């Protein structure tokens, strides 16, 4: 596996989202005729986003040799819900996609707590070495976070304008996740493993 430049991973992760946002902003309020069907800017942006995300995911896999379960689940749900939106010319399915993703993640993390399995640790331990107690606390907090994000997404897309949802999805959700990481800096420090230690037991 070749060493990746530090900008490659963020570019592949953010590129499809920013492409969706750009197409939506440029075509907002317009209609485009494709295959004998009239599509609005939102559906057109969705149509561009699906292959862009698939391509970015493929490139990440070719560069790293592996994909995180979260990446695979996200791609599958984007293809399913985004495809339904394009096929039925109905943006509601794509707007529901984040809700499904967050509920899926919350369910998996919640089950890992009940089953006493450190699934989050298994995925992120190399990047964030902590002891088992730290991983249990972080898993609980992330379960609550994903449930809150699912509810927030439902509230925004059902009660606010399409443009508001796009801005919320493109900028609001990443900012919430960033704020969550900053807010948990104390937990990361308190439960960090001493340098040279392996993964925490648990």
Describe the largest sheet: 2 strands, antiparallel
Structural class: mainly alpha
Rg (CA only): 19 Å
- Which range best describes the helical content: under 10%, 10-25%, 25-40%, 40-55%, 55-70% or over 70%? over 70%
| Topology order in helix (H) and strand (E) letters | HEEHHHHHHH
Overall residue-averaged pLDDT value: 88
Q: How do the strands of the widest beta sheet line up side by side?
A: 1-2
Number of strands: 2
Shape summary: globular
Could you give the distance between the termini? 31 Å
Count up the helices.
8
- Please, how many domains? 2
- Low-confidence regions: none
Q: How much strand?
A: under 5%
Subcellular location: Cell inner membrane
Membrane topology: Multi-pass membrane protein
Organism: Paracoccus seriniphilus
Family: Belongs to the YciB family.
Tell me what you see in this structure:
This protein is mainly α and 202 residues long. It has two domains: 1-89, no CATH class; 91-202, no CATH class. It is built from eight helices and two strands. Strand 1 (31-34) and strand 2 form a beta hairpin. The longest helix has 28 residues, at 132-159. It is globular. The mean pLDDT is 88. The chain crosses the membrane at residues 7-27, 39-59, 71-88, 100-119, 140-160, 166-188. It comes from Paracoccus seriniphilus. Plays a role in cell envelope biogenesis, maintenance of cell envelope integrity and membrane homeostasis.
